[in-house]
Amino acid sequence: MTMLGKRRPGRASSDVSGLHGRQAEHREASEEQDALEIRGLAHDGRGVARIARGKTVFVEGALPGEHVRVAVHRTRKRFDEAHVRELLVASPERVAPPCAHVGQCGGCDLQHLALAAQRRHKQAVLEAWLGRQGITLEAAPELLAGSGESYRRRARLGVKVDAEGGVHLGFRARHSHRLVDIDACTVLVPALDALLAPLHRLLAELEAPRQVGHLELLDSDQGALVVVRQLRDHAADAWRWQAFSRARGIHLARWLGREAPKLDWLTPTPALRCRVPGPDGELTLGIAPGDFLQANAEVNSLMVTTALAWLAPLARGRRVLDLFAGVGNFSLPLAAAGARVTAVEGRAAMVARLADNARRNAPGRELSVAARQADLNDEATVGELLQEVGPEVVVLDPPRQGAEPACRVLGQRPVPRLLYISCDPATLARDAALLVHAGYRIRHAAVADMFVHTSHVESMLLFEYPGAARQAQGGSSDG
């Protein structure tokens, strides 16, 4: 499997792909090649072939072992990008895509690959990224996987009005800002999928659809929520949205205004909640529009359960520092297991909700969670937190850019155990190299299939620092 062809803008640079920073000029093309044999699958799900002169070709929609004729749609100095024009020999792992929008919508790029093969590919991707940093796992990563369909509980859909006044609602086309109209989506949970066609009809009936930027959909324990990005207030359209919410029995809010938009509820403000597993039963997390929430509830539960198992036993009073804690996805279950958790998040509103979640889940005996706000991209701040808390366990659950500043500090101030949850294997591998070179070793690894039918890789690594880990297992430290 090759790691070339990394092409998602916005990710941190990595010396793995060789494409960031100094990218050669390219020309668009429609050149048809001779039949190619697909020899592997790139990290982003494209087939990998090589032409006679040795140049690599990344082929969308092609699978290892297949023979295809392709059309090159982009040439670069080091590789070409192509799509399948004719499938000559099919892979036994090729399946009929479940979605009617395959090939148009840019969302689910691995639908043509059997589910078990998708998951093996994601495990291999994590191992390959780590291998590029000289890190070898002792065993294949564990697989955390749930349902293959109807799993996604949140989504963001674009809204656009074309030159003829036609209103479009859907996801972006592959490699394009063009919207693909979506009236049904096989990966959305049923409550959200059922809203797509009615929302499309409603948008077409608005007097000012151009004032709608996008829609956010969320399914919670209290029912479905639609959040409208409303660029400018329009009273008649607000009334239409309210009538729609009453007819459908959903919650409705707006982010109102172009600059610094304010949240405006068009229905009574609900106490939105979702559930996560704890050691003695489920816990509830209060959430609000704009909060980070894992899209796949089933897989998120598996990740939390795995974290509890890897970190067990957490003796009473064990000190845990949870960085990038959100509203308590890992903090609350760890506290319920007996740990004393200092949970740190960058957004003040989420810190307040985290503290409230800790109080609400332990009436009469508040969970030991100290919620803090801090800039976790600042090494000095991370160092001060480590000095103050003296944690025996650190949890990192950063955004896509990873936690490089925190890992640099943790390399200098090692802790017995460090759990790293990642949504980008490239930045995880970069940060893991810092930790391994500082003396940590990887005790457990897992890949979570958070976004089925996509090349997205979510993963978990548990690091231990030799000596310090044995000391922590000997009992709780209160010093």
Automatic annotation (TrEMBL):
Catalysed reactions listed for this entry: uridine(1939) in 23S rRNA + S-adenosyl-L-methionine = 5-methyluridine(1939) in 23S rRNA + S-adenosyl-L-homocysteine + H(+)
Chain sites annotated for binding [4Fe-4S] cluster: C99, C105, C108, C185
Alphabetized UniProt keyword annotations: 4Fe-4S, Iron, Iron-sulfur, Metal-binding, Methyltransferase, rRNA processing, S-adenosyl-L-methionine, Transferase
Binding-site list for S-adenosyl-L-methionine: Q294, F324, N329, E345, D375, D397
One biological process term in Gene Ontology: rRNA base methylation
EC number: 2.1.1.190
Family annotation (PANTHER family): 23S RRNA (URACIL(1939)-C(5))-METHYLTRANSFERASE RLMD, RNA M5U METHYLTRANSFERASE
Record family assignment: Belongs to the class I-like SAM-binding methyltransferase superfamily. RNA M5U methyltransferase family. RlmD subfamily.
Database matches in HAMAP family: 23SrRNA_methyltr_RlmD (MF_01010)
Name used for this protein in its record: 23S rRNA (uracil(1939)-C(5))-methyltransferase RlmD
Organism: Halomonas ventosae
